[in-house]
Write a structure and sequence with these properties.
Layout (H helix, E strand, L loop, with lengths): L3 E6 L5 H12 L5 E4 L2 E6 L1 H10 L7 E8 L3 H9 L12 E8 L7 H20 L4 E2 L6 E7 L3 E7 L21 H10 L17 E3 L6 H11 L19 H12 L17 E5 L2 H13 L6 E5 L16 E5 L12 H4 L5 E5 L7 H6 L3 E5 L19 H15 L3 E7 L4 H5 L5 E7 L2 E9 L3 H8 L1
Parallel strand pairs: 5-6, 5-7, 9-10, 9-12, 10-11, 12-15
Antiparallel strand pairs: 1-3, 1-4, 2-3, 4-8, 7-8, 13-14, 15-17, 16-17
Bound molecules: S-adenosylmethionine (SAM).
The site of S-adenosylmethionine has 26 residues, from helix 6.
Length: about 450
C-alpha cells in the first residue's frame, strides 16, 4: 500500500494545474506525471486519502491495479482474473464496473465490462466459494476499466461519488458550474497560486457578477480559508478493506483544524474580499444558503443586481482585483436585466440603486424593483426572477462598456464557449486558456480593463 500507481482524471485543460496541486498536496514533484486527461501519481495509501481530501481539481482518485496489452475480450478477462481484488473488497460486498475507451478495436464496451465482472466473480468464487454482487446504484466498490487502442487498464476507485460533489451544495440553480471547474478557473486566473510550495497568504479581491448558486465565490473562499475541499463528504475508500478509521479521523481532524499547517489559515478575515451578485434574486438566495453550508458566509458577500448596472464592490488595491465569471451563455441560461430591456420589451427588471456613498456602501444597498415601459414586441419570459431573454449579442458589448466606464484597473476572466467573444466585446484579450466544461470546449478569456480616461491618456 506504500507504492500505489494512482491516476487522477480531470477535465480537459486542467492537467497542468492538477499536476501543480498534486505536487503541493503530497510534496513530491518527482512522483507526479502529467498525462492527457489527468495526472499519474506514485503515492502511498495515506497520500491517496490526502489527495481525495484536498484536491479541488481532480474528478477522482483511482488506484491502478493492472495494465496489459489486449486484443480481445478474453485478454481482458485474463487480465482481470490476475488482479488481487480480495485485498480491496470482500465477496460480501457489492461492486460496479465503469468502462471508457479511446480508439479501442472492440465492438462492444458493454461486453468488455461484462467480462471484467465475470473475472472478478470467478476469482472470488475460486478463492472463497462465494462471489460479490453487482450494485449499479450504491456499490461498495467501483472498478474502472479503460481501453486504449492496445492496453487495458484496471483501477479501483477510492473516491466514490465524483470529487466535484463537495458535500455542501443543497441549492443548484439551473446551470451550476462543477466545483472542480470553478476551482480550475480560479487556478487559471492566477488568483490561486499553485506553483509556490508555501501557503498563500494574500488574495486579491474577487468578484463574480453572474454568480448563480455561488460556486466560484464559495470555492475561492474555501481556498483562502484553507478549508479542505472534501471535508464535508464521504468517500469510496471508507468501504474498502485497507481503510483504517482512526487514521482517517486523525487526518481529517488535522485538516479541519484552524491552524492546519497545509491550509492557508487566514486568521484576519478582513483581508479577504469575495463578492458575488446575480440578476436573479432566487439565485442569490441559493448562493447565500450554499455559502452558509460551505462555512464561508462570513467572507462571501452576495447581492442581487444586473451585471450591466452593478458598480465595483470595492476599490482596486495595489495588488489588483479580479472579476471571474461564467456568464449566461447558450440554451440553458438566458441573459436577463437591462440587456433584455434594450431590445425594447416591456420588462419587469431589477435596477441597482446608485449611491453617492462609498463603493462598498453601494454594493451593500438593496436593489429597487422597477417596471419599465417600452412599446416593442414582448420577448419570451424565462424564469421566476430572471425576467426576460436577450440575445448574447446585446449583453456582451454592453458589459464591456460598463466595465470600461466603472471597472478601471480590474482584470476580468470570462469562461465562454465562444471563441469570438473578444471581437464581440471589442476588447483584446491578454490571455486565453482552453478549458472543457463537460463536453463543451470553452476558453477562459482574460481582459485587463482600462478605463476610458486611461485609454485616452495611453493613446495621447
Ligand atoms: C451560467 S450561470 C452561472 C452559474 C454559476 N457559476 C453557478 O455555479 O451557479 C449564469 C448566471 O447569470 C445570471 N444572469 C443572467 N443575466 C444576468 C445579468 N444581466 N446580470 C447578472 N446576472 C445575470 C443568471 O441568473 C445565472 O445565474
Amino acid at each position: 500500500m506504500n507504492n500505489l500507481h494512482l491516476f487522477l482524471p480531470c477535465a480537459g485543460g486542467v492537467e497542468t494545474y492538477l499536476a501543480d496541486e498534486a505536487t503541493k498536496i503530497i510534496g513530491d514533484k518527482e512522483a507526479i506525471r502529467q498525462e492527457m486527461g489527468g495526472v499519474a501519481v506514485k503515492a502511498s495509501w495515506r497520500q491517496a486519502l490526502e489527495l481525495n481530501l484536498h484536491s479541488r481539481l481532480a474528478s477522482r482518485v483511482l488506484v491502478g491495479v493492472m495494465q496489459r496489452p489486449y486484443r480481445s475480450e478474453d485478454d481482458i478477462y485474463e487480465a482481470a482474473c490476475d488482479v488481487a481484488w480480495e485485498i480491496w473488497f470482500t465477496h460480501k460486498q457489492t461492486f460496479k464496473i465503469d468502462i471508457t475507451a479511446t480508439r479501442s478495436p472492440l465492438k462492444s464496451l458493454n461486453f468488455a465490462a461484462l467480462r471484467v465482472k465475470d473475472a472478478i466473480c470467478d476469482r472470488f468464487r475460486h478463492k472463497s466459494g462465494e462471489r460479490p454482487s453487482v450494485d449499479t446504484q450504491r456499490p461498495d466498490a467501483r472498478v474502472y476499466v479503460h481501453l486504449s487502442a492496445e492496453h487495458v487498464s484496471l483501477y479501483v476507485d477510492t473516491s466514490g461519488e465524483p470529487l466535484f460533489k463537495r458535500g455542501w451544495r443543497q441549492d443548484k440553480g439551473d446551470a451550476p458550474l462543477k466545483e472542480t471547474l470553478a476551482a480550475a478557473m480560479i487556478a487559471a486566473s492566477g488568483w490561486w497560486d499553485l506553483k509556490s510550495s508555501a501557503a498563500q497568504t494574500s488574495f486579491q479581491p474577487l468578484y463574480d457578477p453572474c454568480c448563480g448558486s455561488g460556486t466560484i465565490a464559495i470555492e475561492a473562499a474555501q481556498i483562502a480559508l484553507g478549508i479542505p475541499a472534501g471535508g464535508q463528504r464521504r468517500f469510496g475508500f471508507e468501504r474498502l478493506l485497507p481503510f483504517q478509521k482512526h487514521v482517517w479521523d486523525a487526518m481529517k481532524t488535522e485538516a479541519l483544524s484552524a491552524d492546519s499547517a497545509r491550509g492557508n489559515g487566514q486568521k484576519d478575515l478582513k483581508n479577504i474580499e469575495i463578492y458575488g451578485s446575480d440578476v436573479a434574486h432566487r439565485m442569490v438566495d441559493f448562493a447565500q444558503r450554499n455559502a452558509e453550508l460551505a462555512g464561508v458566509a462570513e467572507i462571501v458577500q452576495l447581492r442581487g443586481g444586473d451585471a450591466l448596472q452593478r458598480k465595483p464592490p470595492c476599490e482596486v488595491p495595489p495588488q489588483g482585483a479580479v472579476i471571474l465569471t461564467n456568464p449566461p451563455y447558450g440554451e440553458r441560461i438566458e441573459i436577463a436585466g437591462v440587456a433584455a430591456q434594450s431590445r425594447g420589451a416591456r420588462v419587469h427588471t431589477v435596477r441597482a440603486n446608485h449611491s453617492p456613498r462609498g463603493l462598498r456602501d453601494e454594493f451593500d444597498r438593496p436593489i429597487e424593483e422597477s417596471h419599465i415601459q417600452a412599446d416593442a414586441r414582448p420577448v419570451r419570459a424565462s424564469r421566476e426572477t430572471a425576467e426576460f431573454n436577450a440575445e448574447e449579442g446585446d449583453f456582451f458589448p454592453q458589459l464591456a462598456t460598463h466595465w470600461k466606464t466603472h471597472f478601471d484597473g480590474w482584470t476580468a476572466h470570462l469562461l465562454v464557449p465562444d471563441m469570438k467573444l473578444p471581437g464581440k466585446m471589442r476588447l483584446k484579450e491578454t490571455r486565453r486558456v482552453p478549458l472543457w466544461n463537460g463536453p463543451i470546449e470553452c476558453r477562459l478569456f482574460r481582459f485587463d480593463i482600462q478605463g476610458r480616461k486611461e485609454q485616452k491618456a495611453a493613446q495621447a
